[in-house]
Specification:
It is a single chain. Helix 1 crosses helix 6, helix 3 packs parallel to helix 4 and helix 4 runs parallel beside helix 5. The protein is globular, with a radius of gyration of 17 Å. It has 6 helices and 7 strands. It is α/β, with parallel strands linked by helices and 250 residues long. It has a 7-stranded parallel sheet with strand order 3-2-1-4-5-6-7, sandwiched between helices. The longest helix has 29 residues.
Length: 250
């Protein structure tokens, strides 16, 4: 197994991309800290991983809270003794235009979607440095962070920040043997913050089908495994080819 005995923290792991990533990494031998604000959802995913023969535990934490991120790292280390992998997946969206979003709405999205990955990465990286072992961090970005769109102004800004955060972290943590990369999905699974997945949702890409959570989970597995040892500071697009297309072309 590619991740045998490694300990992975996955945020927003109670559904969709985070859930599928938790299952896939567990199937490769990782012990999974299933982090979600919804305790019932997180515990259910952890239970299902254990029923399948894996090792997992649910954790409740507010991604935008520095105290919660510090406590989460302490709790995971107390449970398994170390941290090898972090997947910053949790995010929320505003679905607002710049003309009607409020500052409070803006601040909430930035806190969870950008500040949260920064905070958790900081404290996980400190733990990895203290351990003296190699580490892998993957940030989940979005095509919304690379292109303008008609709505979700705060989400787009936050995901744009995640891209640059990923590259800056990669440079600053490389000397500690911590590899940092990102993945860039487009319309994979259910919309951000929602549980419902509509397989008939209109998509325009080069694969001719909606993305599913497993598509992104497989990319994350690649980036946290030794298969990608020479990949660092990259943002891997898992978008069905959307960003390769000229605007207006199908």
């Amino acid at each position: 197994m590619k991740l045998d005995g490694q300990v992975a923290i996955i945020t927003g792991a109670g559904r969709n991309i985070g859930e599928e990533t938790a299952r896939l990494l567990a199937s490769e031998g990782a012990r999974i800290a299933v982090v979600d604000m919804d305790k019932e959802r997180g515990d259910q995913v952890a239970m299902q991983i254990k029923e399948a023969g894996g090792d997992a535990m649910g954790f409740v934490a507010n991604i935008g809270s520095e105290a919660d991120m510090q406590q989460l790292v302490q709790d995971v280390v107390k449970r398994w003794g170390k941290i090898d992998i972090l997947v910053n997946n949790a995010a929320i969206s505003d679905n607002k235009n710049i003309l009607d979003i409020t500052k409070d709405e803006w601040d909430k999205v930035i806190a969870v979607t950008l500040t949260g990955p920064f905070l958790l990465s900081k404290y996980v990286a400190m733990q990895m440095v203290e351990q003296g072992t190699a580490g892998k961090i993957v940030n989940v970005g979005s095509t919304s962070g690379f292109y303008g769109r008609k709505r979700a102004i705060a989400y787009a800004a936050a995901k744009g920040g995640v891209t640059t955060l990923t590259r800056a972290m990669a440079v600053q943590l490389a000397s500690h043997n911590i590899r940092v990369n990102g993945v860039v999905p487009n319309k994979i699974g259910s919309p951000v913050g929602k549980s419902e997945f509509n397989p008939e949702r209109l998509v325009v890409n080069l694969r001719g089908r909606p993305g599913v959570p497993l598509d992104l989970a497989r990319a994350v597995l690649f980036l946290v495994s030794d298969d990608s040892d020479f990949v660092v500071g990259d943002m891997l697009f898992v978008d069905g080819g959307v960003t390769a297309m000229m605007v207006g072309q199908a």
